[in-house]
Amino acid sequence: MIELYAITDDPTPPQPPLLAVRCDGLTALCAPAEPRQGEPTPDALWNHEQVVEGLMEGRDLLPVRFGTLVSDEDAAARAVMDRREELVATLDRVRGAVELAVRAHPRETDEAPVATTGIDYMRAKTRHMEAARLLHEPLASIARESRVRPGPELLRAAYLVDRDAVNRFVAMVRQLEEGHAELDLVCTGPWPPYSFAEQ
Amino acid sequence: MTTIAERDVALVDLVDRLLGGGVVIAGDITLSVADVDLVYVGLRALVSSVASAEEKGVLPRMGDAFDKDALDKDAL
Hints:
The complex is a heterodimer of chains A (199) and B (76). Chain A is α+β, with helices and mostly antiparallel strands and 199 residues long. Chain A contains five helices and nine strands, in the order E-E-E-H-E-E-H-H-E-H-E-E-H-E. With 76 residues, chain B is mainly α. Helices cover 46% and strands 3% of the residues of chain B. The radius of gyration of chain B is 14 Å and the shape is elongated. The chains are: A alpha+beta (199), B mainly alpha (76). The A-B interface holds A 1, 4, 7, 35-36, 39-42, 45-46, 48-49, 53, 62-70, 75, 78-80, 82-83, 87, 90, 99, 101, 103, 105, 107-108, 149, 151-153, 156, 158, 184, 186, 188-189, 191-192, 194-195, 197-198 and B 1, 6-7, 9-31, 38-39, 42-43, 46-47, 57-58, 60-62. Strand 5 (68-70) of chain A pairs antiparallel with strand 1 (28-29) of chain B.
């Protein structure tokens, strides 16, 4: 079996044991793999991520969903050909950009009263939603695209950011953190554009 | 993503992306989006210092059944 890591239109060959499967202007970056059983370990996920990040350093790419295995190189080429036009268009959308993740939680303090009534709860919820909007809008204005993901936080979002705007984005995260002492912000990345790899 | 602590903080984002994002193409995908929650719980049990990150409020609390006291709180 071979595992797919990323799709690119950059012809630069990857370092072995990675291999390039060419298909009409696109390349599937793959590696020989054994089928896995059960849940992946964090190490397995990080190892995969490390490979994709290494590939991302020198080229624009679309990361492939973790655990995508096909029987051989022909099957990899067919899988890419089946969606060729869509993949070409999506590659153009992410070209020159990386993904940054932002999560926001209310900072738990002793002063914050625990909501005991329905009205208190709704007030707190409204306040939190307002805070999430105040965080999201300035970040989205720096990003090329954004996606808000479901999650237990006030905000769990992904931003597609031009490579040369990453510093500006991080500075905005810091500024928002300073302006909202009641919130904890976690920003991670740069990630390959996982959240922007599908239409 | 260079230190262990950074990796633990970023684990939620990693799982979101690798298992819930990326190009979905024909093939033998071993995990689906529907499994993400399950995997997430599994990963929490595997990485002890995630609990420490939760104590610091940098990770979401996904459930109370997890025994944080049994874990090494000095890991971060």
